[in-house]
């Protein structure tokens, strides 16, 4: 093969940072959603993200983010990506980026879980179950947390995604016990009757509803990838693959040589700084979840914007530390408009910002037809054959 353009590629997913309703948003009840646009409006022009701005975060939009002008000479190439997967969960988005779009409709539970599943969980855990409905995690913990302290019952709930979430106060149900229960739940919903994307352990601490706080011991027990991903193909060809944040959970550690758990966005960026100091040839896939878990689902646009500004400061360090043959690709896995109705993810296009110190000019990459273009570009760079589910834009980068 020809010499690769980039020795190291860093794929950075800003979890839930969508950039406007997708063409099929109506099918999800998400018409009018716009995570970045509405966060900008909430800040009334005071959202300060100069590094994302230089990388062209507003250039990808029909209307710029309020207070964040489009760049006349952007530092990065830019575009948007559409999702073709049937859902709008993190698993769908990340799998599709790695050329494994989710085309089979997964199991959803808008009216709560079937009694047969709950009975099996009760028998396995020895604990009764409360909740059993779609709900915001913080809201249901506030409502039922004191009951759990008194009874030891499991708080089980879902959302608009294909997920089973189990919340447990660490003082009553130790984290390792919660993980065992979640692993058992995982074994019940791998098909064919029920196929669920993720079982999410939601540990928290506190003694009253005013003090309940979710901890960083969250763990996602995802459906195992149903086929090979970009990371599998890279690994098989001898390139190093690194996962930062919930990447390891989403792919059940499949195709990942080295993994790091994030305590927070800033902890995640510490891991990025560490990995950037390593000498390797391959791909580092990063997820920063605070935008989604802390602010999107909780419908907190001010907190969301502050998280963006905090990330932007750290992004400046990443840009400074990049080597000449590094490539940085920034995107998202879905939207989670913190001003929108409900508390679920929103079906949005996601940003695509692509930067390398060696690139001489910015290119408009347009609206990509699938998130899989992201993974196809990575494989193309390393000369690795994958599933051909996406179209590489490597040759567009100059």
Automatic annotation (TrEMBL):
Requisite cofactors: Mn(2+)
Residues reported to bind Mn(2+) 1: 15, 333-334
Broad enzyme group: isomerase
Segments traversing the membrane: none
One Pfam family here: Metalloenzyme
Record's subcellular location: Cytoplasm
Pathway involvement of the protein, from the record: Carbohydrate degradation; 2-deoxy-D-ribose 1-phosphate degradation; D-glyceraldehyde 3-phosphate and acetaldehyde from 2-deoxy-alpha-D-ribose 1-phosphate: step 1/2
Entry's cofactor comment: Binds 2 manganese ions.
GO annotations of cellular component type: cytosol
The protein's name in its UniProt record: Phosphopentomutase
Organism, as annotated: Dellaglioa algida DSM 15638
């Amino acid at each position: 093969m020809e010499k690769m353009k980039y020795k190291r590629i860093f794929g950075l997913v800003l979890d839930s940072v969508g950039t406007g309703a997708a063409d099929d948003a109506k099918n999800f009840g998400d018409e009018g959603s716009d995570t970045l646009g509405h966060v900008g409006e909430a800040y009334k022009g005071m959202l300060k993200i100069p590094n994302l701005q230089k990388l062209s975060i507003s250039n990808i939009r029909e209307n710029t983010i309020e207070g964040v002008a489009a760049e006349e000479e952007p530092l990065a190439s830019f575009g948007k990506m559409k999702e073709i997967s049937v859902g709008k969960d993190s698993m769908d988005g990340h799998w599709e980026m790695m050329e494994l779009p989710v085309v089979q409709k997964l199991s959803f539970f808008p009216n709560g879980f079937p009694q047969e599943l709950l009975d099996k969980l009760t028998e396995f855990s020895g604990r009764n179950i409360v909740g059993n409905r779609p709900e915001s995690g913080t809201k249901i913990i506030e409502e039922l947390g004191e009951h759990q302290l008194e009874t030891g019952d499991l708080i089980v709930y879902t959302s608009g995604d294909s997920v089973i979430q189990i919340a447990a106060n660490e003082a009553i149900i130790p984290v390792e016990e919660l993980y065992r229960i979640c692993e058992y739940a995982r074994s019940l919903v791998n098909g064919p009757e029920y196929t669920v994307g993720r079982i999410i352990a939601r540990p928290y601490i506190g003694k009253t509803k005013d003090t309940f706080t979710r901890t960083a011991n969250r763990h996602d027990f995802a459906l195992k990838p149903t086929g090979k991903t970009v990371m599998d193909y890279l690994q098989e060809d001898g390139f190093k693959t690194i996962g930062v944040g919930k990447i390891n959970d989403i792919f059940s550690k499949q195709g990942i040589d080295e993994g790091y758990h994030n305590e927070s966005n800033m902890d995640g960026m510490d891991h990025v700084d560490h990995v950037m100091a390593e000498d390797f040839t391959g791909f580092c896939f990063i997820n920063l979840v605070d935008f989604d878990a802390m602010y999107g689902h909780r419908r907190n646009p001010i907190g969301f914007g502050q998280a963006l500004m905090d990330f932007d400061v750290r992004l400046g360090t990443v840009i400074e530390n990049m080597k000449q043959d590094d490539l940085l690709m920034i995107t998202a896995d879905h939207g989670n408009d913190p001003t929108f109705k409900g508390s679920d993810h929103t079906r949005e296009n996601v940003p695509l910002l692509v930067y390398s110190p060696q690139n001489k000019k910015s290119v408009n990459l347009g609206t990509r037809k699938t998130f899989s273009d992201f993974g196809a570009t990575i494989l193309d760079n390393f000369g690795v054959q994958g599933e051909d589910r996406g179209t590489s834009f490597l040759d567009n980068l100059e």
